[in-house]
TrEMBL record:
Molecular function via GO: copper ion binding; primary methylamine oxidase activity; quinone binding
Boundaries of every Copper amine oxidase catalytic domain copy: 305-707
Cofactor note: Contains 1 topaquinone per subunit.
PANTHER family named in the record: COPPER AMINE OXIDASE, RETINA-SPECIFIC COPPER AMINE OXIDASE
Protein name stated in the entry: Amine oxidase
C-alpha cells in the first residue's frame, strides 16, 4: 500500500466537506430582494389630458351634493333612509364631455371642456313624482345646473321606472316580516321553524306585466351562507306601487306548486290539512353544501408570478402606459369599467370601450324564476364592484386602485382595491417558430399582456371584467361569470327548466348576454365597415385541364348601411368584419381593425314579447351605427322596471343610415347559456363561462408590431445560445433570482357594506 494514499484520501475528503459546506451555506442564504428598474417617464401632457375622463373625486361629489341641497328649493332626504314619497339623490357620476369637445382639446389645442357631474334625483314628494337628471358644473365649484331629462329621453321619466333603492328593499323586507308573515304564524313556525331571523328574500324583476306596475315576487330562502341555493318553496308577490308604505299589499302567494290569494288563505289551508307540505331540512348557518369554506387543508403553495425588476407599466391618476399602449380608465356607477383614448404606438385606435349591460333571462316553473329578467346596469355594475382579494382575484403583486362613488347616499363611498392592473405572462408564446429545414434557428416572443380588471358582485352573480392589451396591437374585452347559481324550489315538472342540484334545489336555466360599446377610430375618426370572408370556387387545373380543383377565394363587401351592419344573434356573420380607415398600409390595403367575437349565447327573447324592445340590443351579435351624442348607451337604467315602454330602445338606433366614411360605433353582444348542474354547487366556476371580443389589427401595420418588442428571443444553431447577449432567457438565473417584495395582506371588503 502506498504510504501517501491515506493523506491523499484525507485531503480529498476535506475538500468534499468544504464544497458541501459552501453549498449548504449558500442555500441557507436568502436571495436578494427584487429591485425596480427606472422606467421611461411618460409625457406630462398626456397625463393631465387624460383627466378629462377621470372619475369624480370625493371632494367633487361633496360639492355637487351641497350645491343640489342649496339650489333646488326642495328638501333632499338621504337615499339610504328615504321612503318612496321622499325626494333624494340616487347617484352622482361624471358627465362625460361631448366627443367633439374632447378631441378638440386632445388633438386640436382647444380649451379643456368644463368638468361636470350627472346627478340622478328621485322626486317622490311632489304632485307629479318623477325622476330627473341634472348636469351640474363647473367642478370643482358648481354654479349651475340644467335639467337634461327631456333632452336625453324625449320626456320626463315616470316615477315608477326608478330603480329600487336599498331602502325600498329594506322596507319591503320589513313589510314581509312584520305584516305578511304575521298572517301565517302556524304555517311558518311548523314548516320552516321561522324565528324572525332565519329567512332571506331575493327580489325578481321586472315588476309586473305592464307600464306602471310595481309588483315584485320575493323568493324566500333559508338565511344561511349561500342562501341562493336554499329555496324553501314559498314566494310572495308584493304590490309596492303606492308611495304610501301603509298601502302596500300582498297580491298572491305561492307555495310548493300551489297559488294562494294571500298568507291568510295559506295559513287556513295549512291548519285544515289541505296543503302538501314539503319540509326542508334546516341548514346550519354556514350553509352546509353551499359553504365555500374549503373541504381540504392548505398544502403546498400555488404558483405565484412576480416582476423581478418591478412593473413595466406606469399609472398616473387615471392614465396607464404599457409598452406601446396608453389609455385612460374610469368607473361608471351604472355600467362599470370603461376606457377612453386608447392609443397604440401613439396613434388612437379607439375613443371609448365600455361595458353597457349584463342581462340574464331565467326559466322555471316557480313564479319568481319564470318572470326574472335581470338588467344589472339598473342595479349598478359599477356600484357593486367589489374590493379585490390580493393573490386570488388578481395576482398578489398587481397594482390595486381605489374607486369612489356616490350612490344612494349623501356622502361618497370608497371601494378600496376595487380595480387592479397587472402584466401577466400567459405561459405561452405570442408567436414562435422552430426551424429544422434549410437553416436551424428558434424565434419566439413570450405572450405577456397588460390586464385591467374589476369584479362586480350583483346579487348572486360575480362578473370578472377584463380588458387585455397584447403586444401585437390587439385588445381583448372579456367577462368571466362565477358566483352562485340562482335556484327555484324543485316541484312538479321542474326538470323541464334545469337540473336538480340538491334535495329540494332546482338549478334554473338562464341565458346571459353582455353588451359592449366599442367606438373605434381607426386611422382617424371617419371609418367604413368592410366584410371579408371566403367561398369555394371550382376551376380546372391549368396544367391538367381534365382535373377540377376546389379552391377557397377571398370575398369582399363594403357594408354601406346600418341595416347591412346589424347581424342577428344566431345568423351567419362574415368571419372578418373590420373598421377600415381612409389610409392604406405599405402594401396598398386599407388599414383596419377587425372585430372578432367569442360567444355561445342562448336564444334571444322572442321579438313578439311585450318587453323585448327594452333589451333589443341583444337581438344582435354585432350592430354598427353612426356615432351620435344622443345615443350614448344601448340601454337605460329605467328599462328594468318599465321594459314595456322602454326609455331607450336600441332597435331605434338602426334606421338604415349610411355608414360609409363616418364616425362609427360597434355594439357587441356576447353571451352564454347556463344550465346549472351539480358541479355548480357550492358555486359556479369561471372555467368555460368566459365570453367577449377581440379587436385585432388587420393590415393596420406593415408588419406585426410585436417584432419590435424587447421580449423577443432568437438564436441559431451557430450561436452561443447560453450567452446573455444572444439569448436573454439564459440569464434568468441571474436577472430573476430575487425575492419579490410582497406587501402585507390586507382586505377592506367588509367595511361599510
Amino acid at each position: 500500500m502506498n504510504p501517501k494514499l491515506p493523506y491523499v484520501l484525507l485531503v480529498g475528503a476535506a475538500g468534499i466537506i468544504f464544497i458541501l459546506s459552501c453549498m449548504l451555506l449558500s442555500r441557507g442564504r436568502q436571495s436578494p430582494s427584487c429591485e425596480s428598474q427606472p422606467h421611461i417617464v411618460e409625457k406630462t401632457g398626456s397625463t393631465s389630458q387624460s383627466l378629462v375622463f377621470a372619475d369624480l373625486t370625493p371632494e367633487e361629489m361633496v360639492e355637487v351634493v351641497q350645491y343640489l341641497q342649496g339650489n333646488l328649493g326642495v328638501q333632499l332626504v338621504d337615499a339610504s333612509r328615504a321612503k318612496p314619497s321622499d325626494n333624494c339623490i340616487a347617484s352622482v357620476d361624471l358627465q362625460v364631455p361631448a366627443k367633439a369637445e374632447v378631441l378638440q382639446f386632445l388633438d386640436g389645442g382647444g380649451a379643456r371642456p368644463p368638468r361636470e357631474a350627472l346627478a340622478v334625483l328621485y322626486f317622490g314628494n311632489q304632485p307629479d313624482p318623477n325622476v330627473t337628471e341634472y348636469v351640474v358644473g363647473p367642478l370643482p365649484t358648481p354654479v349651475y345646473h340644467r335639467d337634461v331629462t327631456v333632452q336625453k329621453y324625449g320626456g320626463k321619466v315616470p316615477y315608477h321606472r326608478r330603480p329600487m333603492l336599498g331602502s325600498e328593499y329594506e322596507q319591503v323586507g320589513a313589510f314581509l316580516e312584520t305584516v305578511v308573515f304575521a298572517a301565517a304564524p302556524t304555517f311558518l313556525k311548523e314548516v320552516f321553524e321561522y324565528d324572525g331571523t332565519n329567512m332571506a328574500f331575493q327580489t325578481t324583476a321586472p315588476h309586473g306585466f305592464r307600464s306602471g306596475d310595481r309588483k315584485s315576487w320575493f323568493i324566500v330562502f333559508q338565511n344561511v351562507s349561500g342562501f341562493f341555493v336554499h329555496p324553501v318553496g314559498l314566494e310572495v308577490l308584493v304590490d309596492h306601487s303606492s308611495l304610501d308604505i301603509s298601502r302596500w299589499a300582498v297580491s298572491r302567494v305561492f307555495y310548493n306548486g300551489q297559488y294562494y290569494r294571500d298568507m291568510v288563505q295559506l295559513e287556513s289551508a295549512y291548519v285544515q290539512g289541505r296543503i302538501n307540505v314539503e319540509k326542508v331540512r334546516k341548514a346550519p348557518q354556514d350553509g352546509d353544501f353551499s359553504s365555500m369554506k374549503p373541504r381540504a387543508p392548505s398544502a403546498a403553495l400555488f404558483p405565484l408570478q412576480y416582476e423581478p425588476q418591478g412593473p413595466r407599466y406606469s399609472i398616473r391618476n387615471n392614465h396607464v402606459l404599457f409598452q406601446a399602449w396608453s389609455f385612460a380608465f374610469g368607473m361608471s356607477v351604472n355600467t362599470g369599467l370603461r376606457l377612453f383614448d386608447i392609443r397604440h404606438k401613439g396613434e388612437r385606435v379607439a375613443y371609448e370601450i365600455s361595458i353597457q349591460e349584463a342581462l340574464s333571462v331565467y326559466g322555471s316553473n316557480c313564479p319568481g324564476g319564470m318572470s326574472t329578467r335581470y338588467m344589472d346596469g339598473s342595479f349598478g355594475i359599477g356600484r357593486y364592484t367589489s374590493p379585490l382579494v390580493r393573490g386570488v382575484d388578481c395576482p398578489y403583486s398587481a397594482t390595486y386602485v381605489d374607486t369612489h362613488s356616490l350612490s344612494e347616499t349623501l356622502s361618497p363611498s370608497k371601494k378600496k382595491a376595487s380595480l387592479c392592473i397587472f402584466e401577466q405572462n400567459l405561459g405561452s408564446p405570442l408567436r414562435r417558430h422552430y426551424s429544422n429545414l434549410q437553416s436551424l434557428y428558434y424565434g419566439g416572443l413570450v405572450n405577456s399582456a397588460l390586464v385591467v380588471r374589476t369584479i362586480a358582485t350583483v346579487g348572486n352573480h360575480d362578473y370578472v371584467w377584463d380588458f387585455i392589451f397584447y403586444q401585437n396591437g390587439a385588445i381583448e374585452g372579456k367577462v368571466q361569470a362565477t358566483g352562485y347559481a340562482s335556484s327555484s324550489f324543485l316541484h312538479g315538472d321542474g326538470l323541464r327548466y334545469g337540473n336538480r342540484v340538491w334535495e329540494h334545489t332546482l338549478g334554473t336555466i338562464r341565458t346571459h348576454s353582455i353588451n359592449y360599446k366599442v367606438d373605434l377610430d381607426v386611422g382617424g375618426m371617419k371609418n367604413s365597415l368592410v366584410a371579408h370572408d371566403m367561398a369555394f370556387e371550382m376551376t380546372r387545373a391549368p396544367w391538367r385541364p381534365e382535373h377540377q380543383i376546389e379552391r377557397p377565394r377571398l370575398t369582399k363587401k363594403v357594408l354601406d348601411t346600418e341595416d347591412q351592419a346589424a347581424f342577428r344573434l344566431q345568423s351567419k356573420m362574415p368571419r372578418y368584419v373590420y373598421f377600415a380607415a381612409n389610409s392604406k398600409n405599405k402594401w396598398g390595403h386599407q388599414r383596419g381593425y377587425r372585430i372578432q367575437i367569442t360567444s355561445f349565447a342562448g336564444d334571444h327573447v322572442p321579438e313578439a314579447s311585450s318587453m323585448e324592445r327594452a333589451i333589443s340590443w341583444a337581438r344582435y351579435q354585432l350592430a354598427v351605427t353612426r356615432r351620435k351624442e344622443e345615443e350614448p348607451t344601448s340601454t337605460s337604467i329605467y328599462n328594468q322596471n318599465d321594459p314595456w315602454t322602454p326609455t331607450v330602445a336600441f332597435a331605434d338606433f338602426i334606421n338604415n343610415e349610411t355608414i360609409t366614411n363616418e364616425d362609427l360605433v360597434a355594439w357587441i353582444t356576447a353571451g352564454f347559456l347556463h344550465i346549472p348542474h351539480s358541479e355548480d354547487i357550492p358555486n359556479t366556476v369561471a372555467v368555460g363561462n368566459s365570453v367577449g371580443f377581440l379587436l385585432r389589427p388587420y393590415n393596420y401595420y406593415d408588419l406585426d408590431p410585436s417584432i419590435y418588442s424587447h421580449d423577443g428571443v432568437f438564436f441559431t444553431s451557430e450561436q452561443d445560445f447560453m450567452a446573455c447577449e444572444i439569448n436573454p432567457i439564459a440569464c434568468l438565473p441571474k436577472t430573476a433570482s430575487c425575492l419579490p417584495n410582497f406587501p402585507p395582506f390586507t382586505y377592506d371588503g367588509f367595511q361599510n357594506t
